[in-house]
Amino acid sequence: MTTNIRHIAKLAGTSVSSVSRVLNNSGYTSPDLRDRVEAAIRTLKYTPSKDARMLRGAQSRMIGLMLPSIDVPFFGILAHAIEQELFQRGYQTLICSTAENMDHEARYISMLLAQRVDGVIVASAFSRAEHFEVLRDARIPIIAIDRELSGIADEAVMADHEEGGRLMAHHLIDLGHRSIAIVGAPAHSQPVQLRLRGISAEMAKNGIMPAAVTMAEEHSFAATYPLARDLLAARPDVTAIIGTSDISAIAAIHAVLDRGFSVPGDYSVIGFDDLPEAAYVFPRLTTVAQPIRDVGLWAAQRLEALIAEHQTKHEPRQASVVKVPVTLIQRDSTGPVRS
User: Fold this and answer.
1) CA 171 to chain CA mean position, Å
2) Across 161-267, where does the E strand assignment appear?
3) Cβ distance 13 to 42 under 8 Å?
4) Is the pLDDT at 331 greater than 90, yes or no?
């Protein structure tokens, strides 16, 4: 039996008009009522039918962009690149910052369905993707960025994070470092896990293991600085620190300098991303660069092509994953191992 808004209203214990307000994001609804309606939508796996979508207009010219956090510089740059490219192509972007919270992701998905978006670009913070199935069932094209969304996304584009990890470790090993520690966040991030895999593989190839791996729950300077500071106190044998991102690496540089040591004289530090801050910090940060803006442009361009494809093609397509090459940018924060 096809689910409709009357079924949602019955399960949520409210009126059809209230469900309509939630679905269309119009008029006032109390937080409790909205929670009940959204829970009923998820339980019943309700999606607007294709015919209903067509009756309301062939295209909304709106795109949903879901990111774990827009106050992280990487995602801020990515959001700007995607929004500008989509705007040039005649689309408006609804930017959703999920705070790495699965319930927030689910709520934003309900909102994007109600807004009848033509497509979604998403960097999910989680490996589980069941709550995205309603988008797929509604035949809304999905592009995953910076990480895969297996079984859900039509296409994915991401930097070659594992190769980037190998480049970081290889660079430090070439400089003579053997006691190398890793500082970063968050541990559950798919890109971070891939970088750690690449680092460990390159170090194992050279017969060494990470001296220490310490990870914060939150991707920020404030969260990773104390980890780096405590690491330096606990492991004086360490000669190099890998930050799983530029922010983590910059936090490590501050921790080294605050303890009265120098970079790279006493400790070499390397990061990942090549944010603008990497060239402004002192000493300038050696890092693995991923083409953030290119990833955003590619995602926007491919999504427009998928939207056109979905209008004419009814059979599901084979999902593809594009891995964008990364490059090592050597600056001033790495040098030969201290004597």
Assistant:
1) 26
2) 180-184, 212-215, 240-243
3) no
4) yes
pLDDT in tens, 45-96: 887 654 444 444 457 889 999 999 888 899 999 999 999 999 999 999 999 9
Are residues 29 and 21 in contact, defined by beta-carbon separation less than 8 angstroms? yes
**Helix (H) or strand (E) segment spanning residue 324:** strand 320-324
Work out the angle between the directed axes of helices 161-174 and 190-205 (0-180°, nearest 10): 40
pLDDT tens, residue by residue, 226-264:
999 999 999 999 999 999 999 999 999 999 999 999 999
Nearest CA to 118 among 88, 98, 138?
Answer: 138
The packing angle between helices 16-24 and 5-12, to 10°, is 110
* CA distance to 18, 198, 203, 270, per residue, from 254 (Å): 53, 25, 25, 13
The span from the CA of 104 to the CA of 131, in Å, is: 11
CA 299 to chain centre: 13
pTM of the model: 0.80
Structure tokens at 108: 């934003």
List residues bridging with 208 in a β-sheet.
none
Location of structure tokens 């500071």: 229
